[in-house]
Design goal:
By secondary structure, this protein is an all-alpha fold. Helices cover 86% and strands 0% of the residues. The protein contains two helices and no strands. It is rod-shaped. It starts with 10 loop residues before the first helix and ends with a helix.
Amino acid sequence: MPTSSKPQTSAIHRVLIDSGADPKLIHPAIEEMRNLSGQNVITAIGTQITELRSEMQAQINGLQAQFTALQAQFTALRAEMNNLTKIIWTLISLLFIPMLGLLYKILTS
């Protein structure tokens, strides 16, 4: 690749030279524009991060609400299961007494 004896310049640099800008100010002006562009990009990324954070927080809040609802359902099911267990053991006890009587009759006859 052949090398040029003229230094490579940006379009902004050429425009500023062609407009008659002070040559001492061209380089600082270009650097300031680069810095401002970088700051704009950083600000835009920061805004996107903030938006994503708020969206994620909304999703987390929704999941927490669902989890709380599931916990309430689980607690209700556990209480219902305890009640059914009590009823079942009561019925088993009620059936056990006649069975013992029947067994006694069979064994004594």
